């Protein structure tokens, strides 16, 4: 009897040498691929962390407890500015990556600096908004809706803040050590991190700010 | 681990494909991505402020624009593509997306149902001194 | 200066925790003193504490887990004896506020600091060996993960003497866990211990997923991986996808408690059921995080001791991946009674019944693996067969609970308690013991004593059946869980039976300890010379026991399923080992104190946050950042082991193999 006849639905082990395909037959992957993939997996977990807060916001968005509603609170000009800053910083971050690939130190540093400045501008705008809201008595303690808002947007802001700290440290390291492989790998991870935060921001400005102002 | 810095047939997420220039390659890819993302963002803001579409359809239009923009970011900034060297990256992304959708959709469904089935908390509380 | 921390935090009025803590402290100081007196600190620091070797880290994980299982078992004894001595007019010996802390600590410790470390430790130790590689993808991160888990365990145990632990159950349901109803530091201990160890678990999940998907020996395609690697992949994918939900939920609870947010409160529109919803969206996948690696262990053990390849390998892989996905669609069955409508309950009830199909496929595959095999029954196999028998009972009661109308009757009853102990005990704990006895010779170079191992097995099995059999009956008679005092005297006989059962289990635990002591004393007689004590089939048995730091002198080349079995057959047929390979220097990652330093600062942060000592928390964050920068700044990440050293070590292994081959010359292949 052939293997096919014994196991017509292929629930058993694979056949000969050639039928088994899949990634990674060539032995362990390179360090760059491994590090990039590991960071990719981390980012997915981070997106799921955000999705917990998104779920909370979706559930609590209507629970204003007699306090201010999204429509009364959110001004679109500031959000538009924040969005522009973050999108541009994502762009400059990508260009820093391209410059690093070509081993051009000064352009890479300048693009990273631009990324940092734009990120800081974003964070400044966001903190100003938070301060204004708390000053108006629309702080997170006011209602479940505001708790969810500060939780979600604050978590994103916290990520941006940590990203800026990382960026500064990495720029210093790039300055001192130049394009070492591990610095290049970290740069790649930072790129992924920063682009992912921009994707999360797309979710936030759509769900929180734009839908809130309909 | 290994001495090599890159592999053939396997690409780190965010790296462009090892073989040749892709259509989203280098600086030009980022420029195209930036343009598309800016366009989609502007469209989303316009959707809310200008009477472009039927009002009840606006939320759905916003969702579509957001998904489109996330796609643009993934392709032009994160260099996710359908090449064989990207299979692992895309599978991981798909799994993550599935969990995100299950979590948000499930929570909204379950707790929306609960709100519907139970007396609202504030009205219930009025009964007590 | 010290926030909420004052002398009144130490419970001088309660003798039980003080005496227990005093005993533990005494034992700890004795051990530390012995280490200092013998001058073992440099060895411990260099070879264990700062080690980034996945084998060492795996062993430390298992050790931590076993100590914590013992700690959780003490809580279990206290709960059983309290209930048996507090029936009718009797009041027992634990006041309610203390009893509530004990059942909360029992669940928290058993799941987070007992079962999880043992399972993660086994994956850490075994997976790289089975994949035929030298270490995990990120060795230093691995060490950090372990030490963060240890830091969480330390915080939980600190709560015994400094302050108090949560009284809210192992999952701190809101609004009971909000400051209004739990103003003390108990819930804060819970939150920070779990957050810190949760970060460790998440990083270890990322590490192992990357290892399995990106680092495998040449030729090892996905469908050539041993089943344990597949289930480890599934479990770690679940860790990566589920633990962030736990972090988010407890983060919201912390915001509620510390900054007056209203995520889960009664007031201002907060939604307490959202806590239950989110925590179980993590909690149900968590069940499979624990059980999937155990399924992998049983697959390896049953296949090895049936001397047959695993039956239905591909269906096993499919069932594992099926469970990974479907485990995210069943979480509502933990709160059917919350008040959602019939269609929500029906959808999740059906999904729950469907997920049992994946496990059913696996059960049949194990049975068919044994069918027609040449069976051997050492201790790991006994644990596996006991699992097959008892897990089915747990699975069936689970499917029963998946039916919403039945769940309305049994929710929060002792029947539920019996059900989940039934699956976790006979699944995870039996799996852990099977795995530990199976791979112990690989880790230490000698086998565990079989007589005491079998004694421990039979006593544990008997005790387990008596305890939880009685609890099933009590549940059907209507007894609810977490009772500090029992008014209904008709339940007394079964409560006495369960106390008797836990006595038998205590004997089982004692036998385990004796087993380890006896085995260490007889280690010369139990020595595993060849590295293959069980006639194994996968690559971990191809190297010596214990394996050298680099695992394999030359990465094995994989030409089919069960690569080591093929290597062994070839060697027996050709009566030779093949030519000696060309040895090359091997680059191994350098030791690093990053992990232990990070965990030190994490403990500071956790402790400071619990007691509101803000300056200390800030100091902890600065310290953690400084550790990170120091690590990022180092230039040399790896050290080379010269080729001569590699050759010397590998020649010893080859000589042992040759001796084995000569001894097996007459035996037909």
Q: Gap between N and C termini of chain C, in Å?
A: 74 Å
Number of helical segments of chain C?
Answer: 19
Helix proportion of residues of chain C, in percent? Answer: 55-70%
Q: What is the number of strand segments of chain C? A: 2
CATH topology of chain A: Four Helix Bundle (Hemerythrin (Met), subunit A)
User: Can you tell me the overall shape of chain A?
Assistant: elongated
Total count of strands of chain A: 0
Which word captures the global form of chain C? globular
CATH architecture of the domain at 1-305 in chain C: Up-down Bundle
Assigned CATH superfamily of the domain at 1-305 in chain C: Cytochrome c oxidase-like, subunit I domain
Q: What would you say about this model in short?
A:
The complex is a heterotrimer of chains A (214), B (129) and C (669). By secondary structure, chain B is mainly alpha-helical. Chain B has helices at 26-49, 58-77, 87-117, 121-126.
Give an overview in words.
- The complex is a heterotrimer of chains A (214), B (129) and C (669).
- Chain A has 214 residues and is mostly helical.
- Chain A contains seven helices and no strands.
- The longest helix of chain A has 34 residues, at 144-177.
- Residues 13-22 of chain A have low confidence and may be disordered.
- In chain A, helix 4 packs antiparallel against helix 5 (105-135).
- Chain A has one domain (31-61, 76-212): Up-down Bundle (Four Helix Bundle (Hemerythrin (Met), subunit A)), CATH 1.20.120.80.
- Chain B has 129 residues and is mostly helical.
- Chain B has helices at 26-49, 58-77, 87-117, 121-126.
- The longest helix of chain B has 31 residues, at 87-117.
- Chain B is flat, with a radius of gyration of 22 Å.
- Chain B starts with 25 loop residues before the first helix and ends with a helix.
- The model of chain B is unreliable at 17-24 (pLDDT under 50).
- Among the domains of chain C are: 1-305, Cytochrome c oxidase-like, subunit I domain (Cytochrome C Oxidase, Chain A); 543-580 and 636-669, no CATH class.
- Chain C has 19 helices and two strands.
- Chain C has helices at residues 15-38, 41-49, 54-84, 96-131, 139-158, 186-214, 227-259, 272-305, 313-326, 342-370, 379-401, 404-410, 414-444, 450-476, 492-521, 563-574, 594-610, 614-633, 643-663, and strands spanning 586-589, 638-641.
- A two-stranded antiparallel ribbon of chain C has the order 1-2.
- Chains in contact: A-B, A-C, B-C.
